[in-house]
TrEMBL record:
Protein's recorded name: Phosphoesterase RecJ domain protein
Lineage, opening ranks: Bacteria, Pseudomonadati, Thermodesulfobacteriota, Desulfovibrionia, Desulfovibrionales
Source organism of the structure: Desulfocurvibacter africanus subsp. africanus str. Walvis Bay
Domain of life (superkingdom): Bacteria
Residues of the DDH domain: 18-154
Single GO molecular function: nucleic acid binding
Domain DHHA1: 235-318
TM regions (residue ranges): none
SUPFAM superfamilies: DHH phosphoesterases
Amino acid sequence: MSIPSKDIAHILRTEDDFLVTAHVNPDGDAIGSMAAMGFVLQHLGKRFTLYNQSGLPRDFAWLSLPAPITTSIPDCPACWTITLDCGDLHRAGDALMTWVDRQRLINIDHHLGNPGFGSFNWVDTSMASTSQMAAQIARELGFPLEGALGEAVFLGLTTDTGSFSYDNTTARVLELAAEIVRLGLKPGQFNAKLQNQQPLERIQLWSRVLSRTQLLDSGKIALVTITRQDLDATGTGMQDTDGIINTVRRIKGVAVAASLREDGPKEIKFSLRSSGNVNVQPMAASFGGGGHKNAAGGTIFASMSEAESSLVQALRTFAETL
């Protein structure tokens, strides 16, 4: 059932005991929307658990949370489940899929292609981030976007708009950001916490990976690969790869940037980035993935060489249309 934000606000006001989750390997919008929803439930005096199969990334350890993020599903068979920023239910992780009560599942998301897997669905692809949607629910309930709640929303806005540089940076996004700043958030202090936390090992990983950047089709396509050997050699993890593809996209003349990351034996995570009217979501969908017009991805179950060959072929076919 597709419902508006005011109906979700009504459920939060009248029901109790919620499990709040987001996609595995959470980014800033996933963590920001989880925290924001948790603060809303806290303000309502509700029982809730923040759960993520991957846990809290160290990049966001500084963020104030209404409760710890657990990696274990609690014993609450009558819980409502709120999934945030999940284009499909499997994005929340295998453990949740086998546990969740489909009759008490609230799906809040902004991804193209979301199938409406919840019993209650609010999917709005015009939203720049799911944190923006959490902010709308907070407003429906009369909670000002100040303090830790505002900071959580600002995190999602910042990360999903590329620090307000992507095409999804609409007037509504900037007005929401301005509202949060008016209510006390200090952008300089916030950005210092978000951006100035890079460990040396991450810089070494990026240097190693970026040195192998391939330019294809007269520079229209840029491709990088990230192997387990890269991570092992630099003492880094999956979270340290976030952002590499955005750097590649900034190369002059590049219309589409792609990255391939070896997550396991014959499990290759691919990411696609573009700008303007270049829509990479259908290409991601052709490999069983999804996402947005300018940011999409998925998983290819093959070796790195096989995945690279398949993706390059698709990219070259796509480049003919640019």
